[in-house]
Design goal:
single chain; alpha+beta; 86 residues
Amino acid sequence: MTRSLRPGKVFVDWSQNAARKTTATAYTLRVGPAPSVSAPVTWEEIEACRSARQLTFLAPDMGVRLEEHGDLLAPLLDAGRAGSVP
């Protein structure tokens, strides 16, 4: 649905959060044997990573992670950055 047809509304395409789909947003639960979460990471975490398991987060981990790091995507909502290229 184009934005012009939904002023002031967000279109959530729930069908994209399904098996064999590649579109996911941050903080989305992922299908698997354990409830892993698609979570943003820092460049430092990537540089220190020695195994993919280090960057696998489970649903119960997210509370502590948000307390330690905050919402890593929050700067994207900064109105002063709107339209700017980092």
